[in-house]
Amino acid sequence: MVCSNALFHGPALPSLQLDHTPQFAHVTSSAGYSSMRTSAIACQPHRLQTAVQGSRTELLMLCRSKTSLEAGLPHADGFPPKPRNWRERVRQQVRGLVSIAFDAATAPFIAILFGRIRRHQHRLRPKRIILVRHGLSEGNVDRSSYEHQPDSQIRLTERGFSQGKAAGQQIRKLIGDESVRFFFSPYLRTTQTLLAILEAFHGRDILVTSEPRLREQDFGNFQDATSMEEVFQERQRFGRFYYRFPNGEAGTDVYDRVADFWSTLYAFMERPRSPSETIENYVLVTHGLLMRIFCMCYFRWTVKEFEQVWNPSNCEIWVLEKDGANGFRHMGRWRASPFGGSLMPIAFGKNKREPVHEHMRRPVHARLVRPGTPDAYEGLMLEHLRVPGPEHEATPRERQQMRDLEIAAGDGDVKDEQAGPKRREQ
Fold first, then answer.
1. What Cα–Cα distance (Å) separates residue 9 from each residue in 25, 31, 36, 361?
2. pLDDT exceeds cutoff 90 at 299
3. Record's superkingdom (predicted)?
4. pTM above 0.90?
């Protein structure tokens, strides 16, 4: 066994003397006492370091046990010991060949096992994830409500309660008697919306979970209506996703906590505590921005695509439905009022009526690009890569400097390759 660093503490020692033999180390001081004496330690005196701090002296010893030497375990410097004779060398080679053969023989079975595990996890995922924005609140009607009430305590209006009940009927119509679990923001208006929705599930046992990560973006503390108008205008100029509100959050902060919530959601989906806890529908009662960022995280929308998606209306329902082995697909939106109707595309583009890009309705983990071709960055999926170049054209002198840098970089690569073997020899 490789011995961990042995740290010796003691009073101020004016001088230290190290007396060592092949089998033991004897540390003494001018004070005339022994700090350690044992035959179980083989020390490396060239690795001793002494650190003096105030009135204390710390002797840091890098060592390894004698038994580890005999067992052929790695040295303290991390390199394995050299074989002592040809028999050990043969044993090491045989062990390596057996390990390679075992890995090759078991690899197909491991691949099959992981494939089955993934298919099993996919079967455990719900049929749908349903996102619902809260109903009409007092803050939606009168912005001055935020001047004297915390955002978390803004209540629903009477119309907001009616919208919540209509949303509950829509959800019940969609899922029927299938199992369902609710996650909701702990804000008052979302909690009230949840209770209005649950009226459509009268007499059923429903799982509900309060989830603070689904709360609204923090716009600051008490918010003056006049100054907030200027803040929102500034956000439009700066960019909605990156703008940080005074004493509040940026969209990037919300993205981080929603991405973290996704990992929790996957854990609920794929590792239920019992077969009876396998849920067919997850409903998230939350806020408009959270609904958009939730989809941005899952579908991998770019910031530019996110900023073209409009905020859902009060109690608007977004439906993500399982699409075979391709994960979830965004099926569209349902308006809470009037009741009935079918799913419609989400509001997108400058006039809210542009069709949402097809690739935004399914998860896209990476986008293919082929640099050097005429149409390398064409197409909707690569629109975020079409950015402007330098603001001014380079002068002849700047072009020459850039060419010199490229040549120097190329020469440096060649020199590194040539110096590589020498460095390895050292």
1. 17, 14, 12, 64
2. yes
3. Eukaryota
4. no
The identity of residue 44, as a single letter, is: Q
Residue 26, strand partner residues: 19, 37
Percent of all residues in the chain with a pLDDT value above 70, rounded to a whole number: 73
Which contacts (CB < 8 Å, 24+ apart) does range 343-348 have? Answer: 343/319, 346/309, 346/310, 346/312, 346/318, 347/309, 347/310, 347/312, 348/308, 348/309, 348/310
> DSSP H helical segments within 125-240, as ranges?
138-141, 158-175, 188-198, 225-238
d(C-alpha 370, C-alpha 379), whole Å? 12
CA distances (Å), origin 338, targets 8, 16, 167, 318, 343: 78, 88, 10, 16, 13
Residue 342's pLDDT band (boundaries 50, 70, 90)?
confident
Measured at the CA of 63, the angle between CA 62 and CA 64, to 5 degrees, comes to 145
Rounded CA separation 289/312 (Å) = 8
Q: Name the amino acid, one letter, at 61.
A: M
Q: Is 359's pLDDT higher than 90?
A: yes
Distance from CA of residue 183 to its chain's centroid?
A: 20
Return the closest-CA partner of residue 8 out of 78, 62, 57: 57
Q: How far apart are CA 258 and CA 296, in angstroms?
A: 10
Supply the residues annotated as catalytic.
134, 216
